């Protein structure tokens, strides 16, 4: 045998032996798992509990890794394929539950279909489809479809759906639809949102397309490309800032506390300023003079009172077409609706 043949044949023999050893170990592990866990193939399972403990109650497990899982009221239609489950509870309850190509940690799944998702500290109940989604500290209860989304501390319920969206600290309920949008601290009911960005908003029975809102309460309106184009029902459209009510209810500042408002606003302290005298020199080359008529007016009015009463301006409401804007001023109305005629409501 030449040196070249020895260099080629010897490594092939070593690889053949290693491959045969790996196949033998794999077959042994599969036989061990099949003998201890019914309906489980090519899986690594630790601390699996199935109730009731009958053959028909065991789920179908294939190519999965399971650590500390509880399967309750499941059957053969409950399938787990290519998954990693850690501290997970799965409940069948006469409806097919299927988890495939997903990673679940500290989750509760009841009658749902989950695929290609990563869920942590999440509860999924009665969901028809959860796919390609990452969720943390989230509840999906009765959602029709949640796909390609990123959810954190969010609730999606009541036949609602989300697609290609991001939500943080939000609630999507009552058959709402969210597509290609970003929600941050939003409460939404019976609404539809597409390509929108909402921050700290409350929305009821609205449609928003390609529009951005922040700190607003919206009801019964349809917004497209930043403009109000219609309404969803016979009710008046409502759009008002969420923070205005808290600002209007702010208590007046007491004496001795600096005010961040305009200098003309009374602060509650007695006025110590006096009108300038005739030809009183303020600086070199500059003087302030007052006419005799001004002095007579000051004498008639007398000195300023020791205290001034503070009367906060009440909240105002405007009507722009079929829209009622509450707790705003003229500048906010023009900023929100453009250069339109607004009639103040008494």
Report on the structure:
The chain has 4 helices and 33 strands. It has helices at residues 3-36, 244-248, 292-301, 330-337, and strands at residues 40-41, 44-51, 60-62, 65-72, 79-81, 84-91, 98-100, 103-115, 118-120, 123-131, 134-136, 139-141, 145-147, 150-152, 155-157, 161-163, 166-168, 171-173, 177-179, 182-189, 192-194, 197-204, 207-209, 212-214, 216-219, 221-224, 227-231, 237-241, 280-283, 286-288, 317-320, 323-326, 343-345. The strands form 2 sheets. A 10-stranded parallel beta barrel has the order 8-9-11-14-17-20-18-15-12-10. Strands 29-30 form a two-stranded antiparallel ribbon. A hairpin with a 2-residue loop joins strand 31 (317-320) and strand 32. Residues 245-310 have low confidence and may be disordered.
Structure characteristics:
single chain, 346 residues, UDP N-Acetylglucosamine Acyltransferase, domain 1, 10-stranded parallel barrel, two-stranded antiparallel ribbon, 4 helices, signal
DSSP helix fraction:
10-25%
Count every helix, treating DSSP H or I runs of 4 or more residues as helices. Answer: 4
| Coarse structural class | alpha/beta
**Average pLDDT taken over every residue:** 77
Strand order of the largest sheet: 8-9-11-14-17-20-18-15-12-10
Distance between the termini: 108 Å
Count the strands? 33
Task: Output the radius of gyration.
Answer: 35 Å
% residues in beta strands:
35-45%
Question: Main β-sheet: number of strands, strand sense, barrel status?
Answer: 10 strands, parallel, barrel
Shape: elongated
